[in-house]
UniProtKB/TrEMBL annotation:
PANTHER family: METALLO-BETA-LACTAMASE DOMAIN-CONTAINING, METALLO-BETA-LACTAMASE DOMAIN-CONTAINING PROTEIN. This is MBL fold metallo-hydrolase. CDD domains: yflN-like_MBL-fold. The lineage of its organism: Bacteria, Bacillati, Bacillota, Bacilli, Bacillales. It comes from Paenibacillus marchantiophytorum. Residues 34-246 form the Metallo-beta-lactamase domain.
């Protein structure tokens, strides 16, 4: 049976800091300064069950809680929090959120060491060039966090507890345990930072939110061979809608054309000419 959601379209205009967009009836994308979070769940359903995908920047917990209550009603809390990966801009508010909600957190098993205080990420690589954000990246937090017994490894079969229509896909490269989320019914993709829709290395482009599919943010990506394989894996799914960790959601022909271009030109478009991890490719 053909999904009715394939014909429920929402306008995908630029998402700026502090703005949210309902990109599908049960996918709400919200931009916190320069990083996106998503609320997964239908606010018109009787149960109003929902999940949070990623946890934004530090000090954004109150903003996320207000957003959730505006969207799903007062005193709401998610069934769980899904982390695409553990970089500071994707887990910054998670400690405060867990104090408020006390819900399970799910991540790939290879990301767990960074979420239980056992490992730190490499420092940002300013040598990849590309813009001011790259140059400042060594100053960004790179330490792991300790979520203790809150965090759980996702099931090995690709399923997500509480989200039967969605599957997680291992898309390493940006981090060892990076994941993306995909729903086959309407080919909706939450790509995380496997690819993004803004030149994240450039503060100018980030401020303007210039929409263009790019590879993962260069200054934090440690395995370019895996990153390319991950993008190819996502392209093969033929997504109709993609929400990325940075930049504006993208859909249909524009998504297909730009994702194909990225795959065909990955070495030139995505991989930096210089960088600490380029030689390992």
């Amino acid at each position: 049976m053909e999904s009715t959601f394939e014909h429920v379209y929402f306008p995908l205009t630029t998402v700026s800091s502090g703005e949210g967009k309902e990109v599908n009836i049960d996918i709400y994308c919200y931009c916190i300064q320069f990083v996106n979070i998503c609320l997964l769940g239908n606010p018109t359903s009787k149960t109003k069950e929902w999940f949070l995908v990623d946890a934004g920047l530090p000090h954004s917990a109150d903003n996320i809680i207000r957003l959730a209550e505006d969207h799903f009603g007062s005193m709401t809390k998610p069934q769980g929090i899904l982390l695409t990966h553990g970089h500071f801009d994707h887990v910054g508010a998670i400690g405060e959120l867990l104090q408020h909600w006390d819900v399970p957190v799910y991540a790939h098993e290879l990301e767990i060491p960074y979420l239980t205080g056992k490992a730190n990420y490499p420092k940002g690589d300013s040598t990849v060039n590309g813009g001011l954000i790259s140059e400042l990246s060594p100053l960004f937090p790179n330490h792991g966090i300790n979520l203790e017994n809150h965090v759980h490894s996702l099931p090995a079969d690709g399923s997500i507890p509480g989200l039967p229509e969605w599957q997680w896909i291992h898309t390493p490269g940006h981090t060892p345990g990076h994941i993306s989320l995909f729903r086959a019914r309407d080919r909706s993709l939450l790509a995380g930072d496997a690819f993004v829709t803004v030149k994240q290395e450039s503060l100018y482009n980030v401020i303007l939110q210039t929409k263009e599919i790019k590879g993962p943010p260069k200054y934090f990506t440690t395995d370019w061979e895996a990153a390319e394989a991950s993008v190819r894996k996502l392209q093969a799914l033929q997504p109709v809608l993609a929400v990325t960790g940075h930049g504006t959601p993208i859909r249909e022909e524009e998504l297909t054309n730009q994702l194909n271009y990225l795959v065909e030109n990955f070495e030139r478009v995505a991989v930096p000419e210089e960088g600490r991890f380029v030689h390992e490719r």
